[in-house]
Amino acid sequence: MMNPIPRKDQPTRKQKLLFMATCICDAFFDDAARAAVEVLEYLGCEVVFPKGQTCCGQPAFNAGDWKASRQVVRHTLEVFKGMEPVVAPSGSCTAMLVHGAPLEFEEEEDLSKALDLASRSWELADFIVNTLGVVRWEGRFPHKIAFHRSCHSRGSGTVEAALRLLSSIDGLELAEFGEENQCCGFGGTFSVSFPNISAAMGNLKIDHVTAARPQFLVSADMGCLLHLGGMIDKAGKQLPRLHLAQVLRDSLKNGGLL
Amino acid sequence: MQSSVFKMATSLAEKRVSAFQRDYTDPDRLRRLAGQIKQHTLEHLDHYLELVEKQFRKKGVKVHFASTGDRCNQIVLDILQQNDCRKIVKSKSMLSEETELNSFLSQHGVESVETDLGELIVQLDNDHPSHIIAPIIHKSRREMAQCFEREGLGDYNDEPEVITRRARDYLRKQYMEADAGLTGANFVVAESGRISLVTNEGNARFCLAATRVHIVIVGIEKILPRDRDLALFHNIIARSGTGQRLTVYNQFIGGPKANGQPHGPQEMHVVLVDNRRTEVLASNCREILRCIRCGACQNICPVYRQASGFAYRGTYGGPVGSVLSPLLAGENFGEKADLPKASSLCGACREVCPVDIPIPDLLLRLRDKGKREAPKKSGAGTPPMGIWATMASHPATWNAALRLGYALNIPHAQAFPIPALQAWCNVRKLPPWRGGKFRQWMDDRKDSPK
Ligand code: SF4
């Protein structure tokens, strides 16, 4: 067995990090952000929450308004200045910092600042597994879950890391479902610019997921869950959603570790 | 129509995955290598174009350069008229769709017959192809059978064997009557001056069997440096498009009929077409010119599967079309500036593209260009970002907005006449607003450490 997760009395590493809560958790899903902080602290990290933070700038970036987006990114660069890693409970916001911002700063004078933040930014699961070196999660989560792979974590370590952690949890059953790699149809502003196509894609995803009869729909991105959850609720279906961090936290709680 | 597109595209995408996984442990390396080869060629295009011309001329091939689609059509017509050709058979060419060659030729009294089964039905139905490699992905077998019945090729019968047999009989006659054969080219090899053609129906071969003149029209971006590159590209084009290991018919054509050869056209012309490709090469979206028109990005695209090819209003649908159409529109960029928005940016296209084109990045660059150059068209349906940007760069205002958001929790607030909110709430609910609660929790903990 590789590095089982250490107990509270033997922290992995006193790692100081800057936590990006993400605007969506700031507005709707406070418990997901809270769970992420609890999990990181459990692992021995010192979590700093820079209060001036707002949003990663992605909405305008995707909408094509790069001028507006750069204004927000510049603010974010300022807020997250430093040497510490930046950790966000979102593959999408992380992708914005790692890939999006450098793309829209290609011709800007402060490109180096964007590249610096890019090199320090981590999605939560990726950080836990690939920086802290944790590969097995303690506690217990006796439920069947469907894990939705958010598209913006393609090409990153997120999905593999998340699945590795989830599948190691005692009692947790990972549901397999059809077309797991397909997009849920959220796409940020796409969801309001093309609501019908977005909804058709969402319905496909929901059909695949519900066919596997999970108790929870879980993702590393609340954006996807905002959209899928909104559709599930509108249709009057019963399928509660959880952020990956909430599963990790609840597992620790169930195991009496937190 | 939508469900037949969906099913077919999905099944092609699944075949693609197994075709790569069956034979390669790391298919991504092939994609990266192929991307590098094409990128290299594009970056030295002037050199390779010269080489192509030289090698072709050596073998007696007549080489023409066409700066625009219209020019290409005119060159083709001139060749046909000089050789007294009244009827041509043609194999599939997306470039000819781009230049609208068929209608141009018919206006000038030349009959042109499509010989790819899908393209033939498109032509008979006066329709347009809706997919790069499966032009009638939007049609059912029934519609094909109805088309043949209407054209007098026999009574209604939708058995696939009957449809293909009738097409074969019909086309044999056309092949015999035609004076010239027109093809595209999947690849043009600079080193040896050859074109490479891949088809599954063998129709390109037949187009050259009984005709006197062979005309190739091809975009200047289709060049490959060396013969050995074909090994890689044949392997990836078939697997990416249809999930085959190799396309059924692979032809290499390096000139007109030589002395002593019994068959084949006596003349071969290659028309190298620019049609704004050099403009694309000069832009920040030049990677799209690596495209080998395999259709994989269409098959995997969740938006294409829902919307089908016609929604993209151009020769090329799907992700490749959303990039290429606005670029090829030139000064009419604005008319197509909304296309790059038709994507959730999920990145599935990037993962399958055999030449590793970063399609989502190109879509994003075009969105930026759209916002700057054609804000009205590109911004349709997109919520304005100005106020948000101001809020998100001023923490005090941001915090105020987090408090204001609670208005959304008032009963019926989700019916507020804000377009984006309504577009959201038509098909989804918003969860309760909990703005600032996380910040509050962080603050409270600090005040009273556990
Ligand atoms: S963009 Fe890539 S995947 Fe799409 S058709 Fe071209 S080569 Fe194929």
Please characterize this protein's 3D structure:
The complex is a heterodimer of chains A (258) and B (450). By secondary structure, chain A is an alpha/beta fold. Chain A folds into two domains: 16-130, no CATH class; 144-254, Rossmann fold. In chain A, 48% of the residues lie in helices and 10% in strands. In chain A, the strands form two sheets. Chain A has a four-stranded parallel β-sheet, with helices on both faces. A four-stranded parallel β-sheet of chain A has the order 6-5-7-8, with helices on both faces. The two termini of chain A are 23 Å apart. Chain B has three domains: 44-275, Rossmann fold (3-Layer(aba) Sandwich); 290-378, no CATH class; 403-447, no CATH class. Chain B is 50% helix and 10% strand. Chain B has helices at 2-23, 27-43, 45-58, 69-82, 94-99, 101-107, 117-124, 141-150, 160-177, 203-207, 229-241, 277-282, 296-300, 302-307, 318-328, 348-352, 359-373, 375-379, 386-392, 395-404, 419-427, 437-447, and strands at 62-66, 87-90, 111-114, 180-183, 187-189, 194-199, 213-219, 223-224, 249-253, 267-273. Chain B has a six-stranded parallel β-sheet with strand order 1-10-7-4-2-3, sandwiched between helices. The mean pLDDT of chain B is 93. Bound molecules: iron/sulfur cluster.
Topology (elements, then pairings):
The complex is a heterodimer of chains A (258) and B (450).
Chain A: E1 16-19, H1 23-27, H2 30-42, E2 46-48, H3 58-63, H4 66-79, E3 86-88, H5 91-104, H6 111-120, E4 121-123, H7 124-130, E5 144-148, H8 158-167, E6 173-174, H9 190-193, H10 195-211, E7 216-219, H11 222-234, E8 241-243, H12 244-254
Parallel strand pairs in A: 1-2, 1-3, 3-4, 5-6, 5-7, 7-8
Chain B: H1 2-23, H2 27-43, H3 45-58, E1 62-66, H4 69-82, E2 87-90, H5 94-99, H6 101-107, E3 111-114, H7 117-124, H8 141-150, H9 160-177, E4 180-183, E5 187-189, E6 194-199, H10 203-207, E7 213-219, E8 223-224, H11 229-241, E9 249-253, E10 267-273, H12 277-282, H13 296-300, H14 302-307, H15 318-328, H16 348-352, H17 359-373, H18 375-379, H19 386-392, H20 395-404, H21 419-427, H22 437-447
Parallel strand pairs in B: 1-10, 2-3, 2-4, 4-7, 5-8, 7-10
Antiparallel strand pairs in B: 5-6, 6-9
Helix pairs in contact in B: 1-11, 2-11, 15-17
The structure holds iron/sulfur cluster.
Residues 132, 240, 291-297, 320, 352-355, 357 of chain B line the site of iron/sulfur cluster.
